[in-house]
Amino acid sequence: MINRRLFLLFSASVVSVAGAGLITARSARAGQVNWNKGNGGFAADGADVVAYFSLDAEARGVPGTDAYVTEWDGARWRFSSAENLAAFEASPEQYAPKYGGYCAWAVAQGYTAHGDINAWHVEDGQLYLNYNNRIRRRWRRDIPGFIAQANANWPGLSNA
Predict the structure, then answer these.
(1) What pLDDT digit, counting tens, does each position of 69-81 carry?
(2) Measured CA distances, 43 to 20, 64, 106, 115 (Å)
(3) What is the C-alpha separation between 160 and 157, in angstroms, rounded?
(4) How would you classify residue 45: left for phi > 0, otherwise alpha for psi between -120 and 50, otherwise beta?
(5) Biggest alpha carbon distance in the chain?
C-alpha cells in the first residue's frame, strides 16, 4: 500500500515536471515564426530571398545553392552568392518574406497557403509571396488593403 502511494506520488511529480517543460518550450516558441519550408526544409523553398530585390517584377525566383546556407529564426535559408548571404545575415528582417513565406493573399483571407517563389511582389521594401500567378494578379488589385488584412490576421496564424 505504501509502495503504491509512493509510486503515485512519484508519477504525479514526474508529470508535473514534464508539463512544466512543455509550457517552457511553448513559451520559447511563441516569438518565433512558423516558416513555410519546402525544397528540403529551406525557407522560401530554397530561393535566394535577397535576389528578389534586384529582379524585374516578372522574373522568376532565383534558386539558392548549398554552397551559401545560413540559419535564422528557426529556418534554413539558401542563397545564390556569398554577397547575398552576407546581406541577409546583416539584415534578415529586410529580406525575409512577410508572413513566414506563406501566400500573402491567403493570410489576408485568414488562412495559410504555400508561397510560390515565382509568384512574388516587393512592396515598400518588403517581399510578399503568393500561391501562384493567378493569385498574384488578384493580390495586385488591392495591395494596401490586402496587406492591412494580412497584418491583422498574421498574429493568429504565425505560430499555427
Answers:
(1) 999 999 999 999 9
(2) 31, 11, 18, 10
(3) 5
(4) left
(5) 77
Give the phi and the psi of residue 104 in degrees, each rounded to 5: -65, -40
SS3 state at 155? helix
Q: What's the grid cell of residue 18?
A: 514534464
Instruction: Name which of 145, 147, 109 is nearest 125 in CA terms.
Output: 147
List beta partners, residue 34: none
% of the chain exceeding 90 in pLDDT: 71
Average pLDDT for 91-113: 97
How does 143-153 read in b/e, with b if 16+ C-beta sit within 10 Å?
A: beebbebbeeb
What does DSSP assign to residue 61? P
Task: Select, from the ranges 2-6, 24-28, 41-45, the one with the highest average predicted confidence (pLDDT).
Answer: 41-45
Separation between Cα atoms, residue 63 and residue 55, nearest integer Å = 13
Q: What is the pTM of this model?
A: 0.78
